[in-house]
Design brief:
Length: about 425
């Protein structure tokens, strides 16, 4: 694809240096439909990024768009803090009947501010209030957001340094396979919990992702998650499952922890729960944990009504039969086979490929290669990002609604880019 130099001057002179994705994809995007984005010059880009997991149902999904346009057309309430609205009622009823009841998860639903980190902050605050303790345990390479509480339980040194103040009351423990299977799961953690001389303050909660998205697509085994859940029960710690990136069907089932058969005490959701890319976040809590005083945690943009409308339409469209889950698993097998072929083609150059459902990572022995691959992929019309502590992993995160032919096309571009970025 020939790329003419777009005029980026206003972004480069007016927008802050903090901007990031636009640096890797130096064009000006204008339109987007399903699994494609189009720039101002009309170039099409196949999207293997999906808004970092926000667009599980694709860009401008027509069913969700219709529901949104109808709602706006009839002057449905757009902003109402946490007032009761018909859009919120429809969402709560549908979420309960489509997602919670069939899974026997009687969670109460809290609406914090609309971003992922808002949901995490609410979860941490609630856990501390319930248990009357300050300490939270997180895991190596975890990512839970950029506000101070979330950063304190995030691993990445660069992001943590941005806090500018000490990040306290968080203790990291090894994530699954961090020690290459050489040490029994939770040996260190449990020893610290049991030893009065260990120096570990008794934690209020443990926060975990079942697949670490930003941390490099590290997939926790189901038995590891079950053992963690047991450990939390035995030591009276709450289990917070951060499903902001891996929930809403990314790994197959609606919640990424379903396969493990666990029932976390608190679950955070954001990104794709709004369905259409509109901001919305939920903190789900077991009913007995609902010790909030009215207004004790609030915010102007809780309960985003247009997002309730698209979220409800997404649940009704994709989550009333088991089709979405089956489709995601089968598309994931297509990705796995393609990544295996890439690994076979480049013996000794691929450190690992791993994933679940439609989230996959391709890790290179030469860490800098992943960035070169992503750059080549962009030049060939594929949007794909890197993750991991040194950006050494190519992260595949297509929309769950992607067509098999589009998936094939993107995987072919990826294979070509890996070759060219040798
Ligand atoms: N938690 C997880 C697991 C995430 O992947 C992210 C974002 O990538 C967040 C929290 C933070 O979400 P947000 O960027 O909407 O604050």
């Amino acid at each position: 694809m020939t790329i003419t130099q777009p005029d980026l001057s206003v972004f480069e002179t007016v927008e802050s240096e903090v901007r990031s994705y636009c640096r890797g994809w130096p064009t000006v995007f204008d339109r987007a439909q399903a699994s494609h984005m189009y720039d101002e010059d009309g170039h099409a880009y196949l999207d293997f990024f999906a808004g970092a997991g926000t667009l599980n149902y694709g860009h401008n999904n027509p069913v969700l768009k219709r529901a949104l346009l109808d709602y706006l057309e009839r002057d449905g309430v757009v902003h109402g803090l946490d007032m009761s609205t018909s859009a919120k009622r429809a969402f709560l009823e549908t979420f309960k009947s489509t997602i919670l009841e069939p899974r026997d998860l009687p969670y109460k639903v809290m609406f914090p501010g609309p971003t992922g980190t808002n949901a995490v902050e609410a979860a941490l605050k609630l856990a501390r209030k319930v248990k009357g303790r300050e300490s939270i345990v997180s895991f190596t390479n975890a990512f839970h957001g950029m506000s101070l509480g979330s950063l304190a339980v995030t691993g990445n040194a660069f992001k943590r340094a941005g806090a500018g103040i000490p990040l306290v009351h968080g203790t990291p423990m090894p994530f699954d396979d961090y020690l290459d299977g050489k040490v029994d799961d939770f040996l260190w953690f449990e020893r610290l919990l049991e030893d009065q001389g260990s120096g570990l303050n008794k934690p209020a909660a443990v926060i975990v992702e079942s697949v670490q998205g930003e941390g490099g697509i590290n997939v926790a085994r189901t038995e590891w998650l079950r053992a963690l859940s047991d450990l939390c029960t035995r030591h009276d710690m709450l289990l917070i499952l951060d499903d902001i990136q891996m929930g809403c069907g990314r790994t197959g089932a609606f919640f990424s922890f379903e396969e493990a058969g666990i029932k976390p005490d608190i679950v955070t959701l954001s990104k794709s729960i709004g369905g259409y890319g509109l901001p919305l976040a939920l903190t789900l809590l077991k009913p007995e944990l609902d010790v909030w005083e009215p207004g004790e945690h609030n915010g102007t943009f809780r309960g985003n009504n247009p997002a309730f409308v698209t979220a409800t339409a997404a649940l009704e469209t994709y989550w009333t039969d088991g089709q979405m889950e089956k489709q995601t698993i089968s598309r994931g097998e297509q990705v796995e086979a393609a990544l295996k072929a890439i690994a076979d083609e480049h013996p000794g150059e691929i450190a690992d490929f791993r994933g679940r459902g439609l989230v996959w990572g391709l890790e290179f022995e030469e860490k800098a290669r992943a960035d070169r691959v992503a750059k080549r992929a962009f030049e060939h019309g594929l949007l794909i990002e890197t993750s991991g502590p040194q950006s050494e992993v190519i992260k595949l995160l297509p929309a769950l609604t992607i067509a098999p032919e589009e998936l094939d096309e993107g995987l072919r571009i990826l294979a070509r880019s890996v070759r060219e970025a040798a």
